[in-house]
Amino acid sequence: MEPDTGPGTGPDRHGVSVVQLICRAYGLSDASEITLEHIHRYVAERGRVEERTHHLRERFRPNIPRPRASDDAA
Fold this sequence. Notes:
The chain is mainly α. 46% of the residues lie in helices and 0% in strands. The protein is built from two helices and no strands. The longest helix has 25 residues.
């Protein structure tokens, strides 16, 4: 089984389930309205969002030089 890496496992977890996120994303009133199409679409969209987010994080990550060790040449 794969580790749970969904929206509820990150540092900004607010106790919102994937079911609730899918319902909100597609305007569904409850979990009984969720179809496989909703799930596949949600997963595909989240993958694209994660890919863009990762790209932006890498692009804007500051280049912080590492501190020199005492035995490093100057």
